Amino acid sequence: MTDQQAYIIVDIGTGNVRVAAASPQGQVLGVAREDIVYHKDPLYPDALYFEPVQLWQQVLRLAREVLAKVPAASVKAITATSQREGIVLLGKDGQSLTGLPNIDHRGREWEHIMQDKSRIYQLTGRYPTSLFSAMKLVGIRERRPDIWAQTASFLSISNWIEYQFSGVARYEHSQASETLLYDVDRMEWSAGLCSAFNLHASLLPPIAASGAVLGNVKADVAGALGIPADTKVIVGGGDTQLAIKSTRPAVDDMVIVSGTTTPIVKITGTYTLDNEERTWTSRDIEPGRFVFEANAGVTGLNYQRLKEIFYPNEGYDVIEKELAENKHTFCMASLGSLLADEEVSLTRGGFIFPAPVSHLLTRGSFVWATILDIACSIAKNYRILAEVAGHKPDYIWGCGGGLQSRVLRQLIANLTGKKVKLRHEFQQSSAVGGALICNQALQLDVQMNETTETVHPQDEAHFAALYAEWEKTRGYFRNMN
Q1: Which of 18, 255, 257, 294 is least surrounded by Cβ atoms within 10 Å, i.e. has the fewest?
Q2: Based on the number of CB atoms within 10 Å of its own CB, is 34 exposed (0-12), middle (13-18) or buried (19 or more)?
Q3: 402 close to 303: Cβ distance less than 8 angstroms
Q4: 170-207 pLDDT per residue, tens
Q5: CB-based contacts of 367: which residues, under 8 Å, 6+ apart?
Q6: 0.90 exceeded by the pTM?
Q7: Nearest CA to 11 among 54, 49, 51, 59?
């Protein structure tokens, strides 16, 4: 019997580490995951870090766990994706010093050094804040001289994972877009941006395109995992970009990536900016394309936390059943989702329902209101993108674990007036995107599963009224801030 070919895709999210095995056809063969361990840095008001050595040991452990599920598989390639904006600092001998996740804001105290934020937006495609990698470096420089004195370079987390596998340090274009040191239109590091943050260009590694082959896996890693010595290590990309790739979109398509957060993006063929500086523009992992984005924020995380409160011991199938039976839409929520046209995010949120408490109010009412809040924030950000860049197709692609909810898929269709299309294995979009990248790198022409599900809009007038009620609810909480 011929061994099954497989790829290993490492995905470092905001909350957890995932390692997947996938076939060249995009079938997910196995997944293993663990939570990332973060530590507070007491020298800053809002700083988190992780230990790179610990994260790497998690990756190796999870890779062995996944490989044990597919013992007959022959591993041909490895690639990685990760949360954007997160970085790992490297020392002069290539050693890993510290890891700074996307949720680390140690640079916030020094945001004033950015003298011309509009100019930075023009070059980087995003309004600059402490979220982005350059400001994390500034925070280290200003208050951690012990680490800064050792720092010779840095990598995105996914590129660092590839470096650990291959020994080759390269920064991929979609990840470089998140640093504030990269000219997105010109597709290169920017000396002017380095000057804006007083960072030396020597910190910046060479850039490589997604799908480039870094080389064979290091011998010690191949031995530790029991994989062939000629397994190729492939440059991946940002987690949003890999998820987008799984849908195989065309230029002018819109894609919703529903995970811990929910980016809503339009694929463009030209560098597109918003005059009001509300959006992000990044390099796509496909040559010559850009990702024009608004983000609905911590949507999936809200849903997960509400599930833990109301459905701690039940599966998502129970939730979906109760949501489908919920005929009472009087409970509304605003739970901190982000809108591109709001300068300040909401810091207060909650539920609003008629008083006194109705006997019709159930736990399903609260979760339904949460999902409506997610869907409305997606619809609002979609409208902003369409207003700036247009959108003619009658459909939107969807992917990511959040869209496992049939109710959410239907609400998005109803509120946008667009069909929502999902491909096979849409829940594991990063793994499928990684398989496509590996096929590309190995120059394999593979027939992927082209099965799609399409959700059609329904009862749009009714949901337009619900959307108006949601906006009113959001206004109540906005006035509390």
Answers
A1: 18
A2: middle
A3: yes
A4: 999 999 999 999 999 999 999 999 999 999 999 999 99
A5: 303, 306, 307, 310, 311, 319, 322, 323
A6: yes
A7: 59
